[in-house]
């Protein structure tokens, strides 16, 4: 991998690390288990947690019990086009991905970028 690409990737990951760790610490209080990983599943056949970022804001879905992360098999179900996607590992035995979407992308009804 060219050095400049590696630097860009590392800066992008650092940019979102703070938000991901805040969420995981919150969810870990509920005795959830996170196993970091770098190799995504070969086939997407089960729902995954999607950490979808637009600049420094995280996509959440409002519900009666508070806000939730999208949990879907494919991110395309959100109607948003990813600029970058990174596999994070597994949270409660579900795959987790961090995704960046373009500034100005509009989430579906009931969802919003928060932060």
Could you explain the architecture of this structure?
Strands 1, 2, 3, 4, 5, 6, 7 and 8 form an eight-stranded mixed sheet that branches. It is globular and about 40 Å long. The mean pLDDT is 82. The protein has one domain. The longest helix is centred in the first third of the chain and has 26 residues. β2 and β3 form a beta hairpin. With 115 residues, it is α+β, with helices and mostly antiparallel strands. 23% of the residues lie in helices and 38% in strands.
Write a brief structural summary.
With 115 residues, the protein is an alpha+beta fold. The protein is built from 1 helix and 8 strands.
Relative helix content: 10-25%
Low-confidence stretches: none
Major sheet attributes:
8 strands, mixed
Q: What is the mean pLDDT? A: 82
Number of helical runs? 1
- Report how far the terminal alpha carbons are from each other: 33 Å
Query: Can you tell me the number of structural domains?
Result: 1
Strand content: 35-45%
């Amino acid at each position: 991998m060219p050095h400049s690409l590696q630097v860009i990737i590392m800066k992008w990951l650092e940019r979102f690390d703070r938000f991901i760790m805040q969420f995981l610490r919150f969810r870990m209080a509920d005795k959830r288990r996170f196993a970091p990983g770098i190799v995504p599943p070969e086939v997407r056949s089960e729902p995954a947690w999607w950490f979808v970022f637009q600049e420094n804001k995280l996509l959440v879905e409002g519900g009666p019990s508070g806000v939730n992360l999208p949990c879907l098999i494919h991110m395309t179900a959100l109607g948003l086009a990813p600029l970058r996607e990174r596999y994070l590992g597994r949270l409660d035995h579900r795959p987790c991905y961090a995704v960046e979407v373009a500034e100005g992308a509009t989430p579906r009804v009931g969802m919003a970028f928060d932060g």
